Amino acid sequence: MPHGYNGKILRVDLSSGKLTTEEFSESFYRRYYGGEGFVGYFLLKEVPKGVDPLGPQNKLIFAAGPLTGVPVGGCGRHSVGAKSPLTGGYGEADSGGYWAAELKMAGFDAIVIEGKATKPVYLFIKDGEASLKDAGHLWGMKTLECQNAICEELGDTRIKVAQIGPAGEKLVRFASVMNDLDAAAGRTGMGAVMGSKNLKAIACRGTQALSLADPAGVQEIARWIRDNAPVSVKRMRDFGTAQIVDSLNGLGGLPTRNFQLGSIGDADKITGETMAETILAKRRACYACPVQCKREVKVDGPYTVDPQYGGPEYETLAALGSNCGITDLKAISKGNEIANAYGVDTISCGMAIAFAMECFENGLLTEQDTGGLALRFGNAAAMVQMVEQIVRREGLGDILAEGVARAAKKIGKGAERYALHIKGQELPMHEPRLKQGMGVGYAISPTGADHCHNIHDTAYVSMTGSMEDIQALGVLEPMPADDLSAAKVQLVAHYANWIHFLNCAVCCFFVMSLGRVGFERTARLVRAVTGWNTTVFEILKVGERATNMARVFNLSQGFTARDDSMPLRFFTPHASGPLKVALDPEAFQKAREMYYETMRWPNGVPSPGKLGELGIQWAVEDK
Amino acid sequence: MPHGYNGKILRVDLSSGKLTTEEFSESFYRRYYGGEGFVGYFLLKEVPKGVDPLGPQNKLIFAAGPLTGVPVGGCGRHSVGAKSPLTGGYGEADSGGYWAAELKMAGFDAIVIEGKATKPVYLFIKDGEASLKDAGHLWGMKTLECQNAICEELGDTRIKVAQIGPAGEKLVRFASVMNDLDAAAGRTGMGAVMGSKNLKAIACRGTQALSLADPAGVQEIARWIRDNAPVSVKRMRDFGTAQIVDSLNGLGGLPTRNFQLGSIGDADKITGETMAETILAKRRACYACPVQCKREVKVDGPYTVDPQYGGPEYETLAALGSNCGITDLKAISKGNEIANAYGVDTISCGMAIAFAMECFENGLLTEQDTGGLALRFGNAAAMVQMVEQIVRREGLGDILAEGVARAAKKIGKGAERYALHIKGQELPMHEPRLKQGMGVGYAISPTGADHCHNIHDTAYVSMTGSMEDIQALGVLEPMPADDLSAAKVQLVAHYANWIHFLNCAVCCFFVMSLGRVGFERTARLVRAVTGWNTTVFEILKVGERATNMARVFNLSQGFTARDDSMPLRFFTPHASGPLKVALDPEAFQKAREMYYETMRWPNGVPSPGKLGELGIQWAVEDK
To answer: Tens digits of per-residue pLDDT, A322-366?
Structure first.
């Protein structure tokens, strides 16, 4: 059994209440790694075509990786995966905080949950032992109440809780799985799957130290991360992920009014700098992380925001803020608090509200639909109310809780044109007209529009000021953000493999890339943790394998290359503002084809040879 | 300018006698690296379609790399390249010894030679200065005499000489460029190109230490190599490359009687062990290398072999030995001495003789053709005489000096069936029926059948007992030698990129792979030498770029996928002996296709996207 792992995967059959522990070979671990790789493995093995994402046949996987729980910055993450109720395909989201490290120290690498409990339950894992407990009294609770109740009844305040809020219980299709109150496995609706299984929470407590192949080597890298944070990471600590609001606004890359524009007049009101000067109460970190990019905000009026729920990150500031035409930092913070308390993804939630606002402004929705609410861009109070309605599935919120793709169908009247999603998932807050490589990545990502399954290289280079990792991929000069040349697209594809690897490992993009830990030092960390004599080549193969598995899963569920699309809006430039370019349809199509060629996915389908190389022929043969 | 390089490339126009120094950007060095990469670059840029390999328009490139001359085992190598007179395509061979380190310390990274001198000349390079000198008096000399004459007339015994012997002067199509008397850039006929230019030798003397980014890091790896030699490398020291004769013979993988068989009765007479017990006078090393795999043998009768010419390596023992049905170690040593003294490739030379022997035994050649020689398998004296005839282009030797492909055409009567070559180059001493992955590599290698441009993974694993590098490519379990599955072929292709990288760096396969320096430590060495923050991913890309350039060059000269062939003999098993299998035509064809798919070479042609990724679109656009 490799170091860094426990060698145990917990299987929970909620229908029968049976708990079993499964053990796998070292090859299994080295091949599928953890996180996204485990999610792909179990979905492909166990979730056949046509399974209802919200039915008992769906599986819900919580997966850590070899680096999770290792006392190094960026190594406190886990993935949550299932067939997505939002996309109908590969669903998976990653989260930071402290829960994953606790799971590892409690003796498990992953949890596979199947079936459906007859009544609400929660899972408690402590030092190798797991049990299901009644959650009837917890059902309906917000996340803070629920966490407190669990810690109290189990008599241990050091217990870490991953859980759904009322939104997950009510099957909001973009419900999140929250942990540690402010960390969200937000995307692809994993909270709804958890809700559909009547599973309220997973509480973990562990005291077992992980075995490391080379503890001194691990410590050396931990120290390096602590002592060598580049400017970009220092800004992350000072201003959070919101550090980029100002520069994006200047470039026309700050999503505004449902991506109609790329900048907003009062952007300075929602920058990380402004937050630090006004409502910031504290900086927070994930497990073992010196960066402290997370926020804790305190607002006492006109909204009351409980600092225990953290504070808005960049995605939230843009999704509930500029993209709804709003620069009221307190209102956004309130929206963020509600989202964390009820458990929804702030990105999809904000996008759903922006969509509704555009429908309203164009007469597709009226005050009759909104219950009298003037659901216009810039109406901060209306935004906060809509967040409440969505998480409670009340009024128009009940429709928006289905995600923009389904909501647009329900609304009709051509509302689809305002529904900005790929494969059913709403776009995150990165402007594909500006970051065009990332746009191609959005189209191709197995989870639909998702910034956690691809990331734009140029953004990385410009934020870190370093070409090191790009050069280590064999690309020696920087490439512009709007370049969709063959070389650029292939860089994007290779770089996406790196992101997929990080989701397998499971560790943090901010620390590993923006913090310039970089490919090589990350590989060294894997070596020090596991003892495997690995290389950057192999870790990129791990990421490539994971993304191939996710793609094969989508194909098995009926997806085709046609689903690798981009909303039409992004082929037209902003009506005004600093960014003059849009995606070019022909260049975009060519770039997509080049991405396929790079991956050896003719017509979007992984070639048998590629699957053979990656050792996953079984993924198509089993079907 | 990166560390490890001089930043200077010498251009020698032999027609005008003009010498110039060219300087390139850091990107040029990081992209094309050295060795094979430089050869590909200059051939593609400067040698258009249809150029006569033996005419003045051909270019001859001597190229070191970033590691050449670094005081670490395995780092004393260089490449010699040109359009090949044997294949008509990409020609390139690598050599060890001391010459390349001397070139680097003399201030140059490479030499590009063009035109043709009106009379014999040699080039002298000393500490940044280069001059052409008359070689009229050296023309016709054997390599030892010539080296002594140059050292004497320049008054410095520390001068290192790369040179042609009389075989190169006489344009034997598989003439080698010898250096340090026992090291040969043997394959693809580079010595004939040098001869065609009236260039007898390049003498180097340098005293400038190379600049290293991290001298302590370099030293640490040098020490590791010295102190951590695995068993396979210890055997290399004790028994030379001939350490494998015995085990190959047992497996049926020792080429015997022109590859009709895979083992020979008296194999124990030509093993490395026997050599060590009988004629071995001394072990020799290349520059800075603790391994000492090279031999020095002394024979006083019935043949006299001068130890200054070294001793036979494995390839020579098999080519002039078992493959000619011969196990007379002294005769083989004599053949080796003649080959080194006159400058021919012992592999092609031995294969040409074995071909002639099979023709003779089947009546296609008679004693009339051979001047009364009973040119039968097992006739050691006839073998020695044929080596003499070939290097002097006398009698039947004049025909065989053209290589087996041309010789078979001249002989007619269906002699082609005994002419075992790919793209015109004779097979080296690795049995493709046994090492089937290597067989596919032979077919695809840009230089034709060549063990220095691909190597069989399984051989590597079985010789080192280590899966480390294979696992670092993402392949976790060993694969049998006769496996041609999709996964295996892709491993072979990726591993070939590693070999091509070694030819760019330029460093030694034995030390870096058999010596288990391995991917990761080699990348670390590159980092310590150059200061580039490189990774295994990037160094494999460097190898991939080089093999793509070589392939594009071949395509530009008229090659097609049809040239990626395998002689029919290898699809039939040996008539007797331990090895029962042969290549299967269908499996071989499929494997070739899978290799193309892996490389993104549809129909054998690198896709525009692949060239774009590697930054070498210019290679097709310039044409």
So the answer is: 999 999 999 999 999 999 999 999 999 999 999 999 999 999 999
Decide if B208 touches A, using CB distance below 8 A: no
CATH class of residue range A436-621: mainly alpha
CATH class of A241-426: mainly alpha
Sheet strands (E) in A417-505: 421-422, 425-426
- For the structural domain made of B9-205, what CATH number should be given? 3.60.9.10
**Omega cis (within 30) before A506:** yes
What are residue A295's DSSP bridge partners? Answer: A283
Q: What count of other Cβ atoms lies within 10 Å of the Cβ of residue B25?
A: 11
Q: What is the ipTM of this complex?
A: 0.89
**Residues near B538 by beta carbon (within 8 Å), at least 6 away in sequence:** A471, A472, A473, A474, A536, B523
* Domain boundaries, given as residue ranges, for chain A: 9-205, 241-426, 436-621
pTM above the 0.80 mark?
yes
Question: CB–CB of A12/A111 below 8 Å?
Answer: yes
Cα Rg of chain B (Å, integer): 22
CB pairs under 8 A between A and B: 124
What token pair was written down for A163?
């859980």
CB A326 within 8 A of CB A383: yes
What letter would DSSP give residue A178? E
Q: Strands across the sheet with A78-83, in order?
A: A18-22, A9-13, A110-114, A60-63, A78-83, A90-95
- Per-residue pLDDT of A573-599, as tens digits, reads 999 999 999 999 999 999 999 999 999
Full DSSP string of B483-527: ---HHHHHHHHHHHHHHHHHHHHT--HIIIIIT--HHHHHHHHHH
A80 and chain B in contact, CB less than 8 A: no
Q: To the nearest 5 percent, what fractions of chain A are helix, strand and coil?
A: 45, 15, 40
The dihedral of CA B444, B421, B79, B173: what is its sign?
negative
Cis, peptide link before residue A215, omega less than 30° from 0:
no
Is B538 close to A473, i.e. CB distance below 8 A? yes
In this complex, do B613 and A486 lie within 8 Å of one another by their Cβ atoms? yes
* Tens-digit pLDDT profile for residues A263-280: 999 999 999 999 999 999
Give the count of beta carbons closer than 10 Å to the beta carbon of residue B267.
21
Q: Is the confidence at residue B460, as pLDDT, over 70?
A: no
